[in-house]
Structure formats: structure tokens, C-alpha cells
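Entry 12.
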Amino acid sequence: MATIRKRGDSYQIRVSVGYDTKGTGNDLEARTGHDAAAD
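Predicted 3D structure (C-alpha cells):
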């Protein structure tokens, strides 16, 4: 599942990639300072 949040002039993108063998959730997170929608 992915979550996208606008944070001021940038965006935070977080993607859940499942759980490890200990049951801990693993997330990938990226931030961009470029507002692609403004192009």
C-alpha cells in the first residue's frame, strides 16, 4: 500500500513492502522537492 502526502513544497511517498520474519513492518520512504503537478 502506498501513501502520498504533500508537505509544504514537497511530497512524502511511503510504500509498505510487507513484514520481516520478526513481524516488523517494512516501509520504503522517498521525498521529493519538485512539484510535478505544477509543470
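Annotation: The chain has a mean pLDDT of 74. The chain has one domain: 2-38.
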